[in-house]
Design a protein that fits this description.
- The chain is an all-alpha fold.
- Among the domains are: about 15-155; about 415-570, no CATH class.
- The protein contains 30 helices and no strands.
- Helix 6 (about 100-110) runs antiparallel to helix 7, helix 24 packs parallel to helix 26 (about 495-515) and helix 25 (about 480-485) packs antiparallel against helix 26 (about 495-515).
Length: about 600
């Protein structure tokens, strides 16, 4: 079996009948390669040029077959592929064409075993890397000179070529960084065409450890051309490898990738949605882990990334009609984002308005003062101010936001700590319920209700609060009495679904807070949980309550132990409707669908 002079010797593999199955043209091209490799006449060169398009197509088909298998399977089924690729790599007339080089690199990369288990796999890896180095660098030298040079230094080709590959990568990294640092110093700048060509060559190599420094250098490289220099195929390949955990990249490189290539950021966010869909509902700690592993909350410290991710969450929320799973994910994302922002911005790099450009700056500043920074006895006043600011924006015709009540609600719900505190404040207050808090609670659960409908909800909440306070006067709480006190509306008519959910959450909060509520909590929950949907809702309530206490309150309430027990006792049926709707939201986003025009939440 022949090999390039100066290249590593080929691994010894026997040809089997399986190799013929790779392509019906295999024997034809092996014969052609043998003829082409033994002669350098004008006729041979003309024959190569005449057949090259068909041969490139054959290589393309070969790659399509190889990429579906791992290295061990390839060698087991098609050992003669090594011989074919070796002959191709050693033909300078074939390699003179960029397209041939690219496809050959793709094929060779399929042979790399990421975790070699024996000497044969190690030898194949060394041979493959040698030919990768040969393709990428051999045209800068005379092949015979390289061979003589390595022999004079005492290197065996098998040792020399991996070192050459490593040094070549380091040299390119250095050149790219000089280009970045020297700006318009044209004597040291890499030509934009060469940068683009280099990024294309690296497309099939991005998962190889030897190329990690070059991948990072390309991502962080910035030229001075008005158009993007790096090829989009490179960005796509790196993003896919990163999302599938095939490569590890430092955060600055990931941020550069997502800032420079919007499609990669969109795919990363949709990939996150898919992972969140299959994260078990009722465990926001797991949701937090998935979010942090995605690096998106940290990357969102750059406002451009935050606004894209936030807009995609907004679309998912609209498409799912406000699914609690999506809303909880938004709140956990915001919590992780705020933590990252606090770590990164000792001196604020970006004004808060750049993250929420359509919101009232004063309202944003109020929401950013998290409850954990305010003593418990003083939390009523911030809630009152938040309610007044929101009510002015939503209901005052003069100051009403042009983007509608949903946008104000969407901003408010990012900071779930404030939203979840309203019911607690209403229940714990000994005075008459403040109208501002009643309004805020009604707005939280039904943001797009008209003033009249919201006023009716406020009347219902006030009535339920009165009934619950009467129950406190009894020596012991009775589950059925509590259920009856919250079951029927003031008029005797069924309440709207959002109002029913509000009242259920009010009762669950009461069970945690009220003396004696612990004794009847399980019985009340059993009476409430008549459907899988309500069961999911109860599970989500306790999970979100615990998550909020852990993150926003240094002093854990006495009710925490009960909430933990009740959460552990709740079944967690999968929220398939929300999952399907979120997938639909992602598909609509990718196809440029109508999500940005609004959705069913406020219809």
């Amino acid at each position: 079996m022949g090999h390039c002079e100066g290249a590593a010797p080929l691994p010894s593999f026997e040809m089997t009948e399986d190799s013929v199955g790779l392509s019906s043209d295999y024997q034809f091209w092996m014969q052609k390669l043998s003829v082409w490799g033994q002669a350098s006449t004008l006729e041979t060169q003309q024959d190569i040029c005449r057949h090259l398009p068909q041969f490139q197509e054959f290589l393309r088909q070969t790659y399509e077959a190889l990429k579906e298998m791992d290295s061990s399977t390839i060698i087991e089924r098609f050992p003669a592929i090594v011989q074919l690729l070796a002959k191709t790599c050693c033909n300078p007339f074939i390699l003179a064409y960029d397209e041939s080089q690219k496809i050959l690199i793709w094929c060779l990369c399929c042979l790399i075993n990421k975790k070699p288990q024996n000497s044969g796999e190690l030898k194949l890896n060394s041979w493959t890397r040698g030919f990768l180095s040969h393709i990428l660098s051999a045209f800068g030298f005379d092949i015979k000179e390289v061979g003589l040079f390595t022999q004079s230094l005492g290197y065996a080709p098998a040792d020399y070529y991996p070192c050459l590959l490593k040094n070549m990568v380091l040299s390119l990294v250095s050149e790219l960084r000089e280009n970045h640092l020297n700006g318009f110093n044209t004597g040291k700048r890499m030509a934009p065409e060469r940068v683009r060509s280099l990024s294309r060559v690296c497309v099939p190599l991005v998962t190889l450890p030897d190329f990690e420094p070059l991948v990072e250098a390309l991502l962080t490289y910035h030229g001075h051309e008005p158009q993007e220099t790096i090829s989009p195929e490179f960005f796509d390949a790196v993003n896919e490898a990163f999302l599938l955990k095939k490569i590890s990249l430092p955060k600055p490189a990931v941020v550069c990738l997502w800032l420079r290539h919007l499609r990669s950021l969109e795919k990363a966010t949709l990939h996150l949605f898919e992972k969140l869909i299959f994260t078990e509902r009722g465990f926001l700690r797991r949701t937090e882990g998935v979010l942090k592993a995605s690096l998106l909350p940290e990357a969102a410290c750059h406002p451009a990334i935050f606004r894209v991710v936030d807009e995609m969450f907004r679309c998912a929320l609209l498409e799912t009609s406000g699914a609690p799973e999506v809303l909880a994910a938004i709140q956990v994302f915001t919590c992780c984002f705020m933590e990252a922002l606090e770590r990164e911005n000792n001196q604020l790099k970006f004004a808060h308005k750049t993250y929420f450009p359509y919101a009232s700056p004063s309202l944003v500043m109020m929401l950013l003062q998290l409850p954990k920074d305010t003593p418990r006895r003083l939390r009523l006043q911030p809630l009152m101010r938040i309610s007044e600011a929101l009510r002015e924006i939503v209901e005052d015709q003069i100051h009403r936001s042009s983007r509608g009540p949903f946008e104000s609600w969407f901003l408010f719900m990012h900071f779930g700590g404030w939203a979840d505190m309203v019911a607690e404040q209403l229940l714990m207050s000994e005075a008459d319920p403040p109208e501002a808090l009643l309004w805020l609670l009604a707005f939280t659960y039904s943001p797009c209700d008209g003033s009249q409908q919201r006023a009716q909800t406020m009347v219902e909440v006030r009535e339920v609060l009165g009934q619950l306070r009467k129950q406190l006067q009894s020596p012991t709480l009775v589950a059925r009495d509590l259920q009856a006190a919250t079951e029927e509306g003031r008029s005797g008519n069924p309440r709207p679904p959002a109002c029913q959910q509000l009242i259920r959450h009010l009762l669950l909060t009461f069970l945690l807070w009220a003396p004696g509520g612990h004794a009847v909590a399980r019985e009340v929950i059993s009476l409430m949980a008549q459907t899988d949907e309500i069961t999911r809702e109860i599970t989500g309530f306790f999970d979100q309550t615990l998550y909020r206490w852990d993150h926003l309150f240094p002093e854990a309430p006495a009710w925490r132990e009960l909430a933990s027990e009740l959460l552990s006792e709740q079944p967690t049926p999968a929220g398939r409707a929300a999952a399907v709707a979120t997938q639909r939201a992602g598909a609509a986003w990718q196809s440029g669908g109508p999500l940005l025009q609004g959705g069913p939440l406020c219809e």
